[in-house]
Amino acid sequence: xxxxxxxxxxxxxxxxxAAAILFLALQAANLLNLSFQSTYRVEARFDNIGGxxxxxxxxxxxxxxxxVESIVFDDKTFQARVTLxxxxxxxxxxxxSLKILTSGLLGDQYVGIEAGSEEKNLAQGDVVSTxxxxxxxxxxxxxxxxxxxxxGKSESAK
Length: 158
What we know:
This protein is an alpha/beta fold. It folds into two domains: 1-32; 39-143, no CATH class. The chain has two helices and eight strands. Strand 5 (97-102) and strand 6 (109-114) form a beta hairpin. It is flat.
C-alpha cells in the first residue's frame, strides 16, 4: 500500500514538472499570452514585413504594449496589412509611427511604436499611415556586394 501511494505522488510531481516545462516553452516562443487587459485594434500597411509573425510583440521604449494579431496580403495595394492589438492602458497619439525591428542581430522581429505629438489618440479600428518596413539582411548584403563589384570594375578600367 505504501509503495503505490509513493508512486502516485511521484506521478503527480512528474505531471506538474511536464506542465511547467510546456508553459515555459510556450512563453519563450511567444505562443502563449496571459494578458487579461482590455485591448483595442489598429491596422498598419507595410511594403515588407520580413520575418514578422502573428503573436509577435509590439513594443514601445522596450516595453511590450501589445501583440501582432494577424498579417494579411492585400492584393490591391500589394502590401502586407498588419493588425495590432494594443492594451487599453497604453494610449498613443494618432501620428505615431510603426517600424519593424529585430531583437539582436538575428533575433525575432517585432513592431516598434514611436509616439507622435498629436493630441488625439489612436482608437479602435484606426489605420497608422507612417510605417517603416523591415530591413532584410539579404538585401543589405546584396547591395554591399554589388557596390563592391562595381567599385572593382571602375578601378580596373583606369
